[in-house]
Amino acid sequence: VPHQDCNNLAFSWCVVVALGDFNPEEGGHFVLYDLGIVVEFPPGTCFLILSVCLWHSNIPIWKNDTRASIMFYAAGNLFRFVDNEFQDKPDLAKMNADLYQQRQEEKDTYWRKGLELYSKINDLILQDL
pTM for the full model? Predict the structure, then answer.
């Protein structure tokens, strides 16, 4: 089923590990819809994606084959909890209205903070000079 992982931290990598007993040439491929890419995904391999941003899924395997996945990701709610002084949003609104209002105002641009953590092509090129 094509999906995005909307509960992940927007700018964090998600690691997907393929497990099972199946022929990766015949099924279990990893599909990245936004990029128009279909990749063989053999058991024991891992894939890193921004799963909150990219629509993705797997191609079915044969009836008698087995396939499983392990996902490693950063839950966005955990980061919000820390940013909210270790409170959920309703408690923060009651306990610290000013900080709650500040977090609400930052919400639409929070992803920019994460984007700034990534290297830019010009920075990488300049490192080699």
Answer: 0.75
Residue 109 vs residue 36, higher pLDDT: 36
DSSP H or E run through 20: strand 14-21
Q: What is the DSSP letter of 88?
A: -
Cβ burial, residue 107 (10 Å; 0-12/13-18/19+): exposed
**How many whole angstroms from its chain centre is CA 83?**
19
Kindly give, in sequence order, each residue whose CB lies less than 8 Å from that of residue 69, ignoring residues fewer than 6 positions away. Answer: 16, 17, 18, 19, 58
Residue 15 has pLDDT above 80, yes or no: yes
Handedness of CA 21, 22, 23, 27 (dihedral sign): negative
The phi, psi pair for 32, rounded to 5°, reads -110, 95
Structure tokens at 46: 């891992």
Q: 34: which residues sit within 8 A by CB, 6+ positions away?
A: 53, 54, 55
CA distance 33 to 25: 19
**Which tokens sit at 33?**
């819809």
Residue 41's φ and ψ, nearest 5 degrees, are -135, 75
The contacts of residue 81 (CB under 8 Å, 6+ apart) are 87, 88
